[in-house]
Design goal:
Length: 81
């Protein structure tokens, strides 16, 4: 396994849906590649923070967040729906 494959298969790896032979190769790569370990940790933290951001959807947006940013996020969300 190479670093590019770590990125391509990360979601499958973290969800537990990766076949055992691929998971073994993935784990072996992580043992030898501190950069990919850091990437995986960063990805996991990003997912955690993203989920936390939506844990209280009725909570008011803090005043320090620019209104233009809120409007841009809402407009982008509407386009996806």
């Amino acid at each position: 396994m190479i670093c590019r494959e770590v990125v391509e298969f990360l979601a499958e790896y973290l969800s537990g849906d990766m076949p055992s032979d691929q998971r073994l190769a993935f784990d072996e790569h992580l043992e030898a590649c501190p950069e990919c370990v850091a990437y995986v940790k960063s990805y996991q933290e990003t997912v955690k923070l993203g989920k936390a951001a939506f844990s209280h959807p009725d909570e008011r947006v803090p005043d320090e967040v620019p209104e233009e940013l809120v409007e841009a996020i809402l407009a982008a969300h509407k386009k996806r729906i």
